[in-house]
Amino acid sequence: MEITLDKHSANQASIKITLNEADYQPKVDAKLKDYAKKASIRGFRPGKAPISMVKNMYGVSLLVDEINNILGESLNNYLKEQSFRILGEPLPVEKADESIDWKTQKEFDFEYKIGFVEGINLPLDKNTSATKYDIKVDDKLVNETLENLKSQYGESTNPETSEAGDSIYGDLTAEEGAISKSVSLPTSKLSKKLAGKFIGIGKDAEVAIDAKEVKKEEWSEAFGLNEEEIEQAKGGFTFTVKNINRTQAAELNQEFFDKIFGPDQVTSEEEFLNKVRETLQGSYDKESKVFTEEELKKVLVEKAKIELPDAFLKEWLLKANEGKVTEADVEKEYPIYAQQLTWSLISNQIAKENGIQAEHEDVIEKTKEMIREQFASSGLGSQLEASMDMFVDNYLKGNEGQNYMNMLTSVQNDKVLAFVQEQIDMKEKSISIDEFKELLEK
Predict the structure, then answer these.
(1) What's the gap between Cα 236 and its chain centre?
(2) Which string of DSSP letters, residue by residue, matches 192-255?
(3) Which end of the chain is more exposed for a tag (fewer CB within 10 A), N or C?
(4) Angle between the N-to-C axes of helices 402-423 and 327-354, in degrees from 0 to 180, rounded to the nearest 10
(5) Region for 300 from its dihedrals, namely left if φ exceeds 0, alpha if ψ lies in -120 to 50, beta otherwise
(6) Using 50, 70 and 90 to split pLDDT, how confident is the model at 138?
(7) Residue by residue, what is the 3-state secondary structure of 410-435?
């Protein structure tokens, strides 16, 4: 057997395998003899058919199977010996102008395309810097949250005449075009001038609107139009009032406190506001952590400068998912796939070099945390904890065990990112909610 590697570029190559008769024939002969002992052929007692007849009937299929086995094993062993990291799976090179004569041919040539990356060089020291973001919850956010809660848990009424801030249910109809739909219109999401048209009106009132008065975001956020409808929104509209909905803000009393945080968790307005602030900060601490880690990944990806075999990977993705995706699908999704693959290569390399390993116990604990978060607002409490082992076991066994592998990868990523932050220069930066939203939009 002869195996040769021909590198076409820094990350793509072809592997040629030549098989001679001595490589496969002894194994084929052994299988033929074994098959002849068991074969049931018409006209002969089981195991008594001439070996020549068995070879004539089954020789080619046994030859093909054996050669495929030799190719698979030889290719895998050869790739394990290489210093580079294989990406995807080797792709057989199909030669349309050549066909194999399995009955007479003695020597066989096969060729495979591979994509790979060479060793990843990523020193982790204080010369590498990244930012650790800390989102601070301010009074503005606490007050906005309080107003939203008071509105959410307030008493709903249907007054005869509308006021500022009411939601108005009615029918929106275009004078020209096909737009005609029922709308629950929150007037608080309209401009002050447009909202004024909906103040002091009652049931069956008709409000005339010119499309020029309405901003694009108002069409979507207030009137609920989709992109196609917004494009068609031209000329005059009529809004016919069917009902007026008003929410009387809830009072800050014990009943309200209990609805939000559970019975007797807070007993005063001061305790309630502190609890709201604490809850918001806990939520944004998690967002800070996620955002910091995603930005850190970008820093490491840029520093590692890994060049992926893009053309090969796109071809492999198309063939590996044959019939399920198109070339257009692969082109569209490839940037996300490439980003995830690059980070996976970096994470695995750091873990390997520094002995970082996800343990079974870590997987169990992370799964418990995930389940607690999912049921945080359910009020199950002690009942959830009593059945936690069952929930964890069911989840990790789900999706044919893939959930466990995904959680294992997630735990390793957590450990790698924590390790990296200890090694490099992490500069802490406190930002407001508004600043955080601006960063997300970049």
Answers:
(1) 43
(2) HHHHGGGSS--TT-EEEEEGGGS-HHHHHHTS---HHHHHH--SEEEEEEEEEEEEEPPPSSHH
(3) C
(4) 60
(5) alpha
(6) very high
(7) HHHHHHHHHHHHHHCEEEEEEECHHH
Residues 431, 132 contacting (CB under 8 angstroms)? no
Q: With residue 286 as reference, give the H or E element that holds it.
A: helix 269-304
Tell me if 83 sits within 8 A of 119, measured CB to CB. yes
d(CA 241, CA 185): 10
| pLDDT single digits (tens) 87-129 | 999 999 887 656 788 888 899 999 999 999 988 889 999 999 9
Residues 334-341: contacts with CB under 8 Å, at least 24 apart: 334/310, 337/313, 338/308, 338/310, 338/313, 339/301, 341/87, 341/308, 341/313
Q: Which amino acid is at 44?
A: F
Quote the CA–CA distance of 13 and 4 in Å, as a whole number: 10
Quote the DSSP letter at residue 94: P
Give me the pLDDT at residue 43, please: 72
What is each CA distance from 89 to 75, 237, 311, 335, 362, in whole angstroms? 11, 59, 14, 19, 31
133: enclosing H helix or E strand = strand 129-135
Separation between Cα atoms, residue 442 and residue 440, nearest integer Å: 6
R_g of the chain, CA atoms, integer Å: 34
Half-sphere exposure of residue 329: CA atoms within 13 angstroms, side-chain side: 9
For position 83, what pLDDT does the model report?
87
> CA 175, 180, 183, 188 torsion: positive or negative?
negative
How far is the first Cα of the chain from the last one, in angstroms, to the nearest whole number?
56
Number of other residues whose CB lies within 10 A of the CB of residue 94: 7
% of the chain at pLDDT higher than 70: 98
Sign of CA dihedral 247, 248, 249, 252: negative
Tell me how far apart the alpha carbons of residues 426 and 419 are, in angstroms, rounded to a whole number: 12
